[in-house]
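Hey, I'm writing a tutorial for new members on how sequence and structure tokens pair up, and I'd like a real worked example in the thread rather than a made-up one. If someone can provide the structure for the chain below, I'll link this post from the tutorial.
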Amino acid sequence: MKNLSHRLIATAFFVLMATSWTRGASSAAPAPAADATRGKVVYERYCLSCHGEDGDGRGEGGDWIFPRPRDFRQGMFKWRSTPSGALPTVLDLDKTITDGVYGTHMPTWYAIGERSRHDVIAYIQTFSPRWRAEEIPAPIAIPPEPAATGDSIAAGKALFDKLECAKCHGDTGRGDGPSSHDLRDDWGDPIAAADLTAGHFKCGGSPADIYRVFMTGLNGTPMPSYVDSIKPEEAWQLVHYIRSLHTGPDLPDVGPAGRPIH
């Protein structure tokens, strides 16, 4: 398992070294249309060992990785800007591939370049018929964040209690609630409740990323959307409370690729 993790990190590093010199020249050129045939080559080189030949998350490392690599066949993705249950946008998938997923074996693949990322997304879309049958809805609107204050944090704590977030995340937000040991995703695999005190989140580190999760939910997991339960200003209050749980040093506002979080 450690060797697999080291291979992933080493591959991403050497791709970064090999391609970084071309970024300035390529950034000005218009992006070509995504090509699933090219994407298959990218997938087989970088993704197959974890996500599997059939996109089922059962690659050679799949049984040794927690959380298990994404199964692409159902078209269900956790981190999206689209409503609960919907397909993600291409930009949503590109964000995940570009930034990686903090706390997992999914590294940043920023270094392979936008063209390769979009090509592999086109190939990933071939695994599920949903991409051919469904329209991708518009992203949810995220209003400007109001200032965090003592009152907004206290209101967020009251909402945390009202929505019974502690059942999974625990009274102090450490992911150790009474239901946390029995959580399963839609594939029946164990899933951990987020430790809200860590200051890092798989969805991304900005306040808008946390807001988005409250309003979209995480498809395929027990984390629901609260878009019909709370108002936008209440979602921001929850964001302020969640961010107040991290009491360590301020974290840099950059993603794993060293780029500003978006």
